[in-house]
Design goal:
single chain; mainly alpha; Arc Repressor Mutant; Arc Repressor Mutant, subunit A; two-stranded antiparallel ribbon; 7 helices; 12% strand
């Protein structure tokens, strides 16, 4: 048996390397490579704590952190953070996840510069979100779909302090 690491961070057991055919919606099959590294003892402890917090193995946590580091180096203004919905790509210096910015881009008829003006950002920051979303459309589309499927009760479970309010039209005098 061989364990194959998938691009979407899932593991699949296959009987023989020549039989690797994996398909997970929105992801491409990939072969993994084993890379060992030495970490200072304190870093290893921190890695284990992070893995435990997320329910990952240390190997999974290491792979995710390496992938995130590579994406940070390849895409300007991109960072990764934990959120109630899991780890997500965010724009540095903002509270907005890339998928949230893409909702704005769609509402501005795909005009990233208009979104940047709306947010009072330099144009390059809006374009950074578009660049990232273009490289990882499945990740962004999945986040948007999850957002659209979330009702207030689900949101209230994730954010207990959330309060619902409804705007009402002012009565005519």
């Amino acid at each position: 048996m061989l364990t194959v690491e998938h691009a979407c961070f899932e593991r699949v057991r296959v009987p023989h390397p020549s039989q690797v055919v994996v398909h997970i919606d929105g992801c491409k099959p990939t072969h993994s490579t084993v890379n060992s590294m030495r970490l200072p003892a304190e870093s290893g402890k921190r890695l284990k704590r992070m893995a435990n917090r997320h329910g990952w193995t240390r190997s999974d946590a290491s792979a995710r952190l390496v992938e995130e580091g590579l994406r940070r180096s390849e895409f300007g203004f991109i960072d990764f953070r934990d959120s109630p919905a899991g780890r997500q790509a965010y724009l540095q210096g903002s509270t907005l996840a890339v998928w949230e910015i893409m909702l704005l881009v769609h509402s501005y008829k795909e005009d990233a510069s208009a979104v940047a003006r709306h947010l009072n950002w330099p144009e390059v920051k809006g374009q950074a979100a578009v660049n990232y979303a273009g490289a990882f459309p499945g990740e962004i589309n999945d986040a948007i779909a999850e957002n659209e499927a979330t009702d207030f009760e689900t949101l209230k479970r994730m954010l207990p302090h959330a309060a619902e309010f409804v705007l009402q039209k002012a009565a005519k005098s």
